[in-house]
Here is the input.
Amino acid sequence: MRRRTPDRLCAEAVELAREAAEEAAWPGKPGDYLGATADDDRVVTHFFECHDPGYRGWRWAVTVARASRARTVTLDETVLLPGPGSLLPPEWVPWSERLRPGDLGPGDLLPTEPEDLRLEPGYTGEDEPPPNSVLADERATPAPLPPADT
Here is the structure.
């Protein structure tokens, strides 16, 4: 596919594109100008950074166009598009490294690390059935004695 040369008037309409991106991004603001691509004859898309924390790596795309033999550039559309790598999740961080002050409240318990030297083996109750369960009742009831031979 051959590369198109952007229309000069459409490529120079950066301020028109920025105004449209500012209106679409309100109350935020679009970031730096990233460049433009020619989509067709007299149709150019301008790209701006998006600073919204929920859209990391996305960019504002503003398409402008002009009619044949017209000198006026008009706004076609303004959209938010994913940039390269924006749809990939961030690097995984274990929960123990993600915890920040304020993440835990009273009564919250954290699992211990398997090799925690401060801990000693002790009674955990894992072998005991839950109280008031059928298994606990069976353990509490003594087994009947076999009849004695006389």
Notes: The first strand starts at residue 30 and ends at 40.
